[in-house]
């Protein structure tokens, strides 16, 4: 059963994981978020419950 042979696939998985964790992830984490967190309290809207005609 050739799919149980980890020889080529383990190296591919390991190299892609290392590429992501060492090269791509620090580049992505260095970006500044566009929406900075605000200190305003969240607003809640007052809604009226829907009256269902069959209840």
TrEMBL record:
One Pfam family recorded for the sequence: ATP-synt_8
Family: Belongs to the ATPase protein 8 family.
Membrane topology note: Single-pass membrane protein
TM ranges: 6-24
Cellular component GO terms, alphabetical: mitochondrial membrane; proton-transporting ATP synthase complex
An example Gene Ontology molecular-function term: proton transmembrane transporter activity
Name recorded for this polypeptide: ATP synthase complex subunit 8
One BP term from GO: proton motive force-driven ATP synthesis
Source species of the chain: Cyanoderma ruficeps (rufous-capped babbler)
Cellular localization per UniProt: Mitochondrion membrane
PANTHER family cross-referenced by the UniProt entry: ATP SYNTHASE PROTEIN 8
Record keywords, A-Z: ATP synthesis, CF(0), Hydrogen ion transport, Ion transport, Membrane, Mitochondrion, Transmembrane, Transmembrane helix, Transport
Main location: mitochondrion
Lineage: Eukaryota, Metazoa, Chordata, Craniata, Vertebrata
Source superkingdom: Eukaryota
Region (Disordered): 35-55
């Amino acid at each position: 059963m050739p799919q149980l042979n980890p020889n080529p696939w383990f190296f591919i998985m390991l190299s892609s994981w290392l590429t992501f964790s060492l090269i791509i992830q620090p580049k992505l984490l260095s970006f500044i978020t566009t929406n900075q967190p605000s200190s305003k309290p969240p607003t809640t809207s007052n809604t009226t419950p829907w009256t269902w005609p069959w209840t």
